[in-house]
Structures are given as C-alpha cells and as structure tokens.
Amino acid sequence: MRPKPAIESLRAQIERIEGRSRRATSVLPFGIPEVDSRLPGGGLARGALHEVAGGSNGAIDGAAAGLFAAGIAARTTGKTLWCIAKPDLFAPALAQAGLAADRVVYVEAGDDKTVLACMEEGLRHGGLGAVVGEIAHLSMTASRRLQLAAEETRSIGIALRRWRRHTDAYDFGVQTAARTRWRVSVIPSETLPVPGIGRHRWLVELAHVKGGESADFEVDACDEQGCLALPAELVDRPAAAEGWRRGASG
Amino acid sequence: MAADAAAQAAGLRPGMPAAKAQVLVSGLIVQDADPIADAEALERLALWALQRVAPIVAADPPDGIVIDSTGADHLHGGEAAMIETLIGRLAMSGVTARGAIADTWGAAHALARFVADPSVIAPAGHGAAVIDPLPLAGLRLPPGMAADLRVLGFERIGDLLAQPRAPLILRFGPELGRRINQALGELAEPIEPIRPADLIEVQRTFAEPIGAAETIARYVGKLVAQLCAALEEKALGARRLDLLCHRVDNRIEAVRVGMAQPVRDIKRLTRLLCDQIEQIDPGFGIELMALAATIAEPLQRRQIASSLIEVATPDISDLVDTLANRVGERAIYRAAPVASDVPERSVCRIPAMSPDTGATWPSHWPRPIRLLPHPERIEAIALLPDHPPVSFTWRGVRRRVKRADGPERIHAEWWKRDAELAAIRDYFRVEDPSGERYWIYRAGNGEDPETGSHLWYLHGVFG
C-alpha cells in the first residue's frame, strides 16, 4: 500500500510547483495500525481540515461524530475551541472521552457564518490543539479558507457536520477542501455475558482521504484517553479473512 | 414630596403635603430633599454605567441616565439581554430602575417613564407610533407648558402630533417644536458623554476630516501607541477600550472593545479595534478621535518560560478577546462541574480565561454527549418497578430496546425547592437493534406516586 519513493519525489516536485511550501507535516496517529496505514503519513494530518459527520440519525444529533471529534481533540496537546450553533453539548461526556473541562473553550455562535469565522480565527491563532466547529453547510470556498488557515499552524481543524433535516445531509457528498472525510455511525455495542450495554461501538467510514483510498472500520468508541480500539474479537481473527470489513453503507 | 414603594403602600402619594403625610402615618421621618447629593449620586451611577454598559453615557437629571448603546450591545448579547442585565444589576444594589431602548433620546425618555412595562424595547425605525399614546409629560416640556396644553384639550403626544405645528409654536414658543422634533429624531440631540477625572484618554484632532477605513485604522494605531505609553507610566493594562469618533455633523460614533485580562500590547489592541472599524459610520468625516481606557487594571510583568525543559503553554487570551468582541462576552465560556447529581444542573459556565480548576465530573456512569434542553416525553412499555422499557416511542418512531443498563437513581435536591422533596428519576441507558443509544428516565421510583408521575422521558443521546 505504501507509495513508492519515485511517486513521493514526484509529489514533492508537484508541491513545489504549486508553491505550497508545506512544512514537514506531522500527524496524529490513531494508534490502530489498520486505520493509520490507510492515512498518508500514518495518521491524521495536523495543520489540516478534517470533516466528520454522523450516519442516519447521527446526521442530526451528531452524537457519535461529536465524540469521535472529542477523542481526536483529547489526544492533541493544548486547548480546544469548540464552536457550537446549538447549545446541547454535554460537557461531562466530553470529559469522559478524555477532553477535560479545563481544556475546552466553547463559542456559542448563532449561525453557520459565525461558526466559520470563529473556526478560522481559532485555526489562525495556532495556540490551540484542535478547533471543532458544528456546521451544516460547508462550501468549497469556506472549506478552502479553513484549510489555508490551518496550514499556517499545527492545529487540527474538524468540521463536525450536523444538519437540521435528513434531506439536507446529501450535502455531505459535495467536494470540499478537507483533507479527510469521515462518517461515524453507531452500531450495536460489545456483547457482554450479562445483561447490559458494553463498550460502545462505531462504524467509522473513511469516505474520502487526499492521497489515499477510502476504507471503513468497526471500532470501539473512545476510552477515557480518547483512544479508539479495534474490537477484541476482530483483533484475534486471522488477517487473511478480511470478511469483517463491511461494505460502505449510507 | 417623593414616595418610594413602601411609602406608597402606606397610602402616601408624591406631591402630598408633608403635614398630611405625618397625620396618615404616625412616626414618619421626613427628610429634606437634597438635589445636590441626588445629582452627585446620579453622576456616580452614570460612571458605573460608563464602565459596564456603553461608551457614551450621561446623567439625565433629575432622575435618569441616558446611554447610547450603539456599538456596545453586541458585548452584552443583544439589546434585550443588555437591558435585562442592567435593570437586574441595579435591582441587586437596591435601585428600582425602568429602562427603554428607542431610536431617539426623546422617545426612550418617554417610554421609560410612561409605559407600564419596566423594560421596553422599541423596534428600530419605530417612528412616532410608539410615543403616540403616551401623556404629554413624556415630551420633556418646560414646567407648566404641559398643563397649559392640557387646558387646550391635548392629552396625549399623538394629539399634539396630529395638529399643524406653526400655530402651536406661535402660542407656546420654539421649545415645544424642538422637543417634538427631538423625540421624532428630526432634530439631532447629541449626548455629551461624562468623563471621569482620572480617565486615561488620548485624542487627536484632524485639520481635515477623515473618512476612509484605512486612514481610521492608521490613526487608531497611533492612538493605541500613545495610550499604551500612558498606561505604562501608571503600570496599568486596559480591560475596556472606548474609541469615540466625533463627526463633523456633531454626532459621536463609538466603538467599545473588552478584554478578558488587562492588556497593554499595542499590536493586540490595534487589531481588536480595527476589527470593529466597519461599525463606524464616518458620515461626512471624523474631526476628532478619542481613545480611552475606561477600565484599567494593574498589569504585572510575567516571566515567560524560556528554558529548554519547560514547554510554554500557548496563551490564548488574545484569541478569546477577538472572539468575545465578535460574538459577545457571554457566548464564549468554559464548562465547570457543579456538585449536583441532576444532569442539567451539573454544568455551569465560567469565563473562558478563568484559571484552571482541575475539577471534573464523577466518571462511574456514562453520560450522553447530547443532552436535550428539555427532557422529551416518550411512550414506553416497561415492567414496574425497576425494569428498563421493552420498547418506546420517541418523536413518532417506535424503537425496540435490545439492551439496557440501569437504573441509575437520582434524587432531586430537596434543599432547593419543596416540590423536589421526594422526587426521583430512574435513568436507563437503552440501545435499539440498530445500535442507537439513548438516555431515558422515569419520573418516580415506580412504586410510590409521591416520588413522580411515572411518565417516561428521553433526556439525551449517546454516541
């Protein structure tokens, strides 16, 4: 899967021609080899914009997608700016995903336009670990602005897509300048030998990645450090049987 | 004679002879009016408002304060929130205040004094309609003139506005016409802002009026540099900056920026002010610009980590200031734990730049990432007293419960309200076959009707 050295040097040449003197891009690995190997550089690029949305009902409540973003923010260093349009985020849940209360600064921006402006301001500042913005409509121009702002610093920008209606969610297919695009849907949790709900489980679809191939993974939800994990019964399965990978689903 | 609420309850009325009042209430203490002390107190109140509310504030004797809130209401979260907070804070310090927001000083003066609602907000561009039904006294006419007009049959402001203006002015003098025009906004009425004696202020007069945004930005930079030098002499940092632009047509355009911590950084203050330049309407030109540090606090020099071992924590106070001046101080905050088991009370908002508390919530029960602002009723089928539901219907969709966890019993806080004396909520975490996880609760313990209605509610969504 790894790109060949010749291609790497070609890419470097193209980047030079494009005039984007990108500094050595550092990455934030997920700590799961199956996921990291699919991402260029072996992790989520810092100084870039990433898009996260929820599947089915998650497109409206953005619950699993929000925790996924919180897990990423928790693993960065420094504070996180969380721009919200609707104040229904429950801070104790973020703390349980590893993002302590002291590390999150919330901005209650009334509309998409203000959310975008606040995100851009946060990304340009550079002192933040991650900037998360809950946003419905993200145009190519807007995402390009955010991406350029993020490139100047090492902050991770996360556009957490959240729509009012299911019908609006088709917007997620529209091309943006985001480096990666994720869709996180809930699936039945880990089976316990006793009645009850085990560790929450998600289907994480990497719908688009610049310079890589899309893929999907079934993972255990964030732990107290914000780390995802592969389900135990999948880890011990022989590598040849790739049957666990489910097809992309809407 | 004046009378407060307690005196009015005892049957006293303003304007009543003192002797009569003393007969009505035995042991009444009568105090002489002290107009000078009243005026001084009003002046102090105006200063307080200047520091907290808006850059252009003046006392409006004998009983009012006039505030030009243009360019400052965004810091308070809008006009409605601003007037509520203002009246609330005055009430806390024992002053019963009435307020009104209108397009002109005259209209606001009348609305504040002659409308039953203690906080009135007239829609922008309201015209004469809002003051039509108010009595003539609302027009700030000289004493006696209102009585004379009433003799002629004029009761309300609307009656007066419907009459031709010329005969009225011929009979009552130009003052009447001036007051009517001021109330309608046809005649400008500048507010002369109060300036405390120890205010740190720098200003610059222009021989030729300026108007272009770039020119304003350049002079803002020069003024900030001067102001920072003045602040440095006193070892202060600015918490609030007011930029007043006096226009050639005798109007003042004001811009206010607030900082979470005292700041004396030229670049940062210039940037904050320049972000607001688009709100300044230069009209025919600005002839004088004044920059004042309305609130200045001691600023200590701080050592910055420069060694190789320590990693400096990035300072985000400048970002917080920029965002606070854009979306309002209230809209940028951090969450802090409150010692309460009731979920909606377990989080409070603290200022974004308050020191780290290190406190966190107990983590033994999972909490949903989305908490609905109000729990929503659901129809559930469940075995009482302590089983999770078999299925429930939320927003018209029926969901079968495949797995569930609970109950987590939360007792209401009996020390807060009597109604919460015995109330109980039993929370369950439920999962439907497709994996959607919800946080639902039953009001009551399932046995005793005193503990709750036994209805089911959905309170949050898990990720």
Structure, briefly:
Chain A: InterPro entries: ImuA, P-loop_NTPase. The complex is a heterodimer of chains A (250) and B (463). By secondary structure, chain A is an alpha/beta fold.
Question: Overview of this structure, please?
Answer:
Chain B: It holds the Pfam family IMS_C. Chain B: Residues 202-304 form the DNA polymerase Y-family little finger domain. The complex is a heterodimer of chains A (250) and B (463). In chain A, the strands form 2 sheets. An 8-stranded mixed sheet of chain A has the order 5-4-6-7-3-8-9-10, with helices on both faces. A two-stranded antiparallel sheet of chain A has the order 1-2. Mean pLDDT of chain A is 85; it is low at 240-250. Chain A contains 8 helices and 10 strands. In chain A, helix 6 (112-125) packs parallel to helix 7 (140-151). The two termini of chain A are 26 Å apart. Chain A is α/β, with parallel strands linked by helices. Chain A has one domain: Rossmann fold. Helix content of chain A is 28%, strand content 24%. Chain B has 463 residues and is α+β, with helices and mostly antiparallel strands. Chain B folds into 4 domains: 1-33, no CATH class; 35-184, no CATH class; 200-298, 2-Layer Sandwich (Dna Ligase, domain 1); 370-461, no CATH class. In chain B, 28% of the residues lie in helices and 28% in strands. Chain B has 12 helices and 17 strands. Chain B has helices at residues 5-9, 18-24, 35-52, 79-92, 105-114, 145-151, 157-162, 165-172, 174-184, 213-233, 266-275, 317-327, and strands spanning 56-60, 64-68, 99-101, 119-121, 200-210, 236-247, 252-263, 286-298, 332-337, 347-351, 370-382, 389-394, 397-400, 403-411, 424-431, 437-443, 456-461. In chain B, the strands form 5 sheets. A 7-stranded antiparallel sheet of chain B has the order 13-12-11-17-16-15-14, with no helix packed on it. In chain B, strands 5-8-6-7 form a 4-stranded antiparallel sheet. A two-stranded antiparallel ribbon of chain B has the order 1-2. In chain B, helix 10 runs antiparallel to helix 11 (266-275). The mean pLDDT of chain B is 86.
